[in-house]
Design brief:
Layout lengths: L27 H6 L5 E6 L4 E4 L1 H7 L18 E2 L11 H8 L3 E9 L5 E12 L6 E9 L1 H15 L9 H4 L2
Amino acid sequence: PEHAEPARRSPKLPKDLPPAMAVAPHLATAAVLAHAGVGLLVHDAAGRIVYANPAAEAQLGLQAGPDATWSPSAQAGWCDDDEQPLPPEHHPARLSMDSGLAVDDAVIGTRAADGSRRWLSVSATQWDDPAGGGRFVVSTHTDITQRQQREVALRDAAERDRLTGLPNRAQLLL
């Protein structure tokens, strides 16, 4: 029988970090991610983005600030890996905030500014502010669009005749 891995609880922040999650810019990880291709967002319990690195801003067309509210329902074009609409309550950051558990490598799609489909691998975890400032969700976003496109091309090559584009024999026998 298969054994499911036990759910991971979110890590606690070290007690010596600055209060109220103004900590994100001070984290060594955030400093590295500020110049990496991995997007990093910090959401407060109300869904407001309190930190976004440049990659997250570029990937999602978002900016952190007092008026920036994260709302998956407001983000047109969110979908799951089967390209079905993604309900707001199924967004990895919302799942982590609601459950207190980490969400690892969820594949979701979104629309880029040019209308093209972008695929992201999203991980999210809830962090409690040790100074009592509340709960936050930290999420990372890696653009996996090229990988998804290669997988679709490989699947098509395996299932279709290259010359005609019609289903191959293997597909006809199914």
